[in-house]
Amino acid sequence: MSRVDPEDEWVFVLNDDQLLDELTQRNLSTEGSYPILAARLLRQVRHERLGLPGASSSKSTAISDEEHLMVSPPEEVVRPDSPSPPARNRFTPGSPGTTNATRRSSGGASSNSAATAYNVMRKWNLKFTGTRGEDAETFLLRVEEGRALVPVSDEDILRCLPFFLSGMALNWFRGRKSRLTSWETFKTAWRARFGDPDFQFALRDEIMRRTQGEHEPVADYLTCINALCDRLSPPWSEAEKVNYAFRNMLPRLKIAVRREEAEDMDVLEDLATRAESSYATTHPYRAPPTPEKSLFPDLAYRPPRSANRSKHNESIASLDTSSTSATSSNTSPRKKKGTPKGKAVETAGTSNASTPPETKPKASRTSNAKCWNCEGSGHFSRDCEAAPRRHCYRCGRADVTLRTCPDCSGKD
Q: Pfam family example for this protein (predicted)?
């Protein structure tokens, strides 16, 4: 059993209307699904090429599986139940025995085409449950990609869909099955239930909001943008796609890539990938080893002395700043023991009124101090501006020292 000859492949490229026109011109029946009609036209074309009588419209309109899946040459037929080696019999289109052996009803042919479509669709990896967050557009796109590879009629698609749906999606399809008469009708109802009714508007908004992730490779980002733009109808121009893709890239890549150099998405991907690779190589910077850690100290990098000096000064300045802040936070005004509360409050109020804010802590400490040198108040003896005189540094007695003071000398 041989496959379709290359010169007959044009039959299976025709759309529904073209196929019906070809059958009508040859006075053939137009009943049946697409595979049946294509096989009928193929048989007639072969008969015409070989000079054999054509199949008239009065002949059986049903085509066997062997004829529409893997058509044999008209001059011979292979019987699958024959012993090995198979016997070869001459095939005559008008032969009653052969025609009756391959004749089937229209209902059987329709069931056959649906079964064939189901076996084909099982390889498309179709599955949809209707749960929230599931992508309804991906399901439609997958079906259309499969139909572009293997022609399947709308009728067979709709008959086989329940076997690829489950859950809420299956219940929805069963309730609307009688009203879904074509693939376009199904897509409109499908988007209204599980997708966005205004799909094109939502798709454009999605493209405008799609930005590159912080850790997303730019090639993956541009692939997603291309996939979104492929679903636009009418499609965007190449310049418009590049504009949106470039605008939503990471800032570090936008700085390295010039928009004027990107003529299309392929050029933009090449430039952005190069910029991304350059950034990745410079990001993990490592300082050179010091001469002490080098195998050849004379060949090691030596920083300039000015750089070391400035770095040392910055370290000292930072230490001074931290120590100053710690000292100021730990300093607090103290009140001298034995001073009445009222007097302390009154003195503090007077000091605050006459002393600038910067010297408030110092003024509060010296306002109640007594000088043993001049016997004045308001300062200590170490800060006294009068001429120093002899006195005991412990009790303040005049004309004596700590050792000669009768009150303090015996307390050591």
A: Retrotrans_gag
